[in-house]
Q: What sequence folds into this?
């Protein structure tokens, strides 16, 4: 069956290259986008992905220096990236430059 009742409509805000990746599924393969999306079912079933459900997250309360808060907010305004992603990326880069003795960077 290939009618509007066998679909769930979703809206995603994607970068242009990701949007084209989805939009052009099936193009040049002689199938519709719907048929190409159905080809993703076994691929998704085989994906080996880590579990990132909320239960694995733990809260942390930290005092952010005003100067750091200001530059993170500025970077957020300029890039649209979430505040926490900017903070985490900066912390990752800090750890690369300042490794902890006796602790692998992967285990932090």
A:
């Amino acid at each position: 069956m290939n009618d509007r009742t066998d679909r769930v409509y979703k809206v995603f805000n994607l970068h242009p290259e990701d949007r084209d990746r989805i939009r052009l599924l099936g193009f040049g393969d002689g199938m519709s986008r719907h048929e190409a999306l159905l080809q993703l079912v076994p691929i998704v079933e085989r994906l080996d992905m880590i579990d990132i459900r909320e239960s694995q997250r733990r809260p942390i309360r930290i005092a952010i220096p005003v100067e750091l808060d200001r530059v993170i907010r500025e970077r957020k305004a300029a890039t649209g990236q979430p505040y926490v992603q900017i903070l985490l990326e900066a912390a990752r880069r800090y750890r690369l430059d300042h490794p902890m003795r006796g602790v692998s960077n992967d285990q932090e």
In short: The chain has a mean pLDDT of 86.
